[in-house]
Amino acid sequence: MSSTRPTLIARSRRRARATGRESFSHYLGGMNVRCEHCGAFRWKAENKALCCANGQVTLPPLPRTPSLLMKLLSGTDLKAKRFREKFRAYNNALAFASLGVNEEILPPGVYCFKIHGEVHHSIGPLMPDPTVNQRPKFAQIYIYDTDNEIENRTQWNDGLDQEILADLQRLLHVVNPFVKNYKHASDVTASSGDQAGQVKMILKADSSKDGRRYSLPTASEVAVILPNQPFECSHRLMVRQGVNIVLQGGRLFQQYVVDQYSKMKAHRLKFIQHNQSSLRAEI
């Protein structure tokens, strides 16, 4: 085997030279250059403004990852492995909104999340439609028929471990501010009597704050955080000292990156559309 391999390599090199497609290796060095502003590591030849635009983008550190989620993401036991195999499915079962996207199903091989067209995050009404005996889904599960949350989630997502799902559900009830807001909306609806159908929950993005900084919503406020600059997304994707939980998402990480990229593209197109008089160009 050892004597055959050099021969095969030599043949492939001769064939590459004959066809004009000889390849060359290029070594980038170690990823050990550290940004003086945000502490992100990069390769020497990389754009030094990629991580934080030379200090112009300042984001707070991500909250400390709950121990349960950290064990599921980094553990070697069977429970953790089962969770990582279906990370996207667990996320979908616990999500507040449905992901509307035309996903391309690729042939077997290395997994890749690929989409066509626009990405939509759809949030339906607070309550399911009683006239068609509709079962709750997504955000509705948090406030309707809460005694059967697990059953309501598994009916839309087959093959999930109910123990893992129950653990994640309890975790969200403790740490996620949106759950508390939906619970509050449920209480308001229940106490409204005949006026319950008039109750509305408004998700509002606060545009008065500095776009380069944001804080996570508290239990008393609801916000939708949509990064409107490419540096905000790239800032979260950089390698820094310690564990970056975003990079440990596996297939869900791919979905996150594609989602953020599509938002940035949509933002740029809207800017062009609404600033034609300044740009003096046609789409």
Q: In one word, what is the shape?
A: globular
Poorly predicted runs are: 1-5, 210-228
Number of domains: 1
Q: What is the chain-wise order of helices and strands? A: HEEHHHEEHHHHHH
Radius of gyration: 24 Å
Task: Characterize the largest beta sheet: strand count, sense, and whether it forms a barrel.
Answer: 2 strands, antiparallel
N/C terminus separation: 59 Å
Structural class by sheet pairing and helices: mainly alpha
Using DSSP, what is the number of strands?
A: 4
Query: Which strand order spans the largest sheet, edge to edge or round the barrel?
Result: 1-2
General description of the model:
By secondary structure, the protein is mostly helical. The chain has one domain (57-279). It is built from 10 helices and 4 strands; from the N terminus they run H-E-E-H-H-H-E-E-H-H-H-H-H-H. The protein has helices at 4-19, 67-74, 78-85, 87-94, 149-154, 162-175, 177-190, 230-237, 251-274, 276-279, and strands at 33-34, 41-42, 98-103, 115-122. The strands form 2 sheets. Strands 1-2 form a two-stranded antiparallel ribbon. A two-stranded antiparallel sheet has the order 3-4. Helix 2 (67-74) crosses helix 3 (78-85). The radius of gyration is 24 Å and the shape is globular.
